[in-house]
Specification:
Helices cover 37% and strands 19% of the residues. The chain has 295 residues and is of the alpha/beta class. Helix 3 crosses helix 4. 41% of the residues are buried.
Length: 295
């Protein structure tokens, strides 16, 4: 596997903390287009774009995927997991690593951060892509309802093999050695051989609290760049109940996004797991490339 496939692991200081990031460069050099910043989901890391980013680089883009605060190999301060601080982290990171306009792609939680970034710093973004995230709101839900899954998360495993086996459950559609390798960048190994999530329970609770308060409809009018909203429809291997719930979410929140965003295109990825960067990386990379190449 060459450097284009694996990316280069780098570090930089931004907004007072050290950020780890992965960079993929086009073999043909810069093509004059803005770099692409890939923002990962809640408990993930920049390497969770490993199957998508090389294809974007091959298409001629410079691609950069940071580990957000508290994730991967970035610093893990005790506080600062509200979306506003995360946005300041990302803005400072961009100004340090690739000053100028950038195209931003956010998956799941990364979509929340990407939309907030575009609303607060509209001149920073040339284009915005939200992948199954960013358009959803917890309005009408109590904190207890929204955070009900918090206690079910396993934060520590006896061994790496135990961790990977647990992650494989429910991921059979896309499980591969490459996915397993990417997921190992979201955990840390302890001296006794056990492994734990890089994100701490306290930091994750702070993250969820910020997501619970998040209202995308208050942000849409501040977005000035073209936006692609990608949503998934779950595969038939999921239960009818889960597929119906996801469809209902799309039907509820997509119209708000289409009405609120000035320049919005919607793309549905049918028969696709929420973890689209793992499940259908080529299709997702093609959607991103096509949108970014369009005038």
């Amino acid at each position: 596997m060459n450097m284009l496939d694996t990316g280069v692991d780098l570090f930089t200081a931004a907004n007072g903390i050290r950020h780890h990031y992965v960079k993929w460069s086009s073999e043909n050099g810069a093509n004059g287009r803005p770099p692409i910043i890939l923002l990962h989901s809640g408990l993930a890391s920049g390497h969770c774009w490993d199957l998508v980013a090389p294809q974007l680089a091959e298409a001629g883009f410079e691609v950069i995927a940071p580990d957000l605060r508290g994730r991967g190999r970035s610093d893990q301060p005790a506080t600062g997991y509200d979306l506003r601080t995360i946005v300041e982290d990302i803005s400072s990171f961009i100004q340090t690593v690739c000053p100028g306009q950038v195209a931003v792609v956010g998956h799941s939680y990364g979509g929340y951060a990407a939309l907030a970034l575009g609303a607060i710093y509209p001149n920073l973004l040339s284009k915005l892509i939200l992948v199954d995230g960013g358009i959803w709101s917890a309005e009408g839900e109590s904190w207890e309802q929204f955070a009900q899954g918090l206690e079910s998360i396993t934060w520590r495993y006896a061994s790496l093999s135990d961790y990977l086996e647990a992650q494989r459950v429910g991921a059979e559609l896309f499980w591969s050695p490459e996915v397993a390798k990417a997921l190992t960048t979201t955990i840390q190994t302890e001296p006794d051989g056990s492994v734990r999530e890089c994100m701490t329970p306290t930091a994750w609770e702070q993250t969820l609290q910020s997501m619970w308060r998040y209202r995308p409809t208050t942000l849409y009018s501040h977005i000035t760049c073209p936006t692609l909203v990608v949503v998934t429809e779950l595969p038939n291997t999921f239960s009818k109940e889960l597929r119906s719930q996801k469809l209902a979410m799309n039907e509820r929140f997509l119209p708000e996004a289409m009405a609120g965003l000035r320049w919005c295109r919607v793309q549905v990825m049918e028969q696709t797991h929420h973890e689209a960067p793992f499940h259908k990386p080529m299709e997702l990379a093609n959607l991103i490339t096509s949108f970014l190449r369009a005038v």
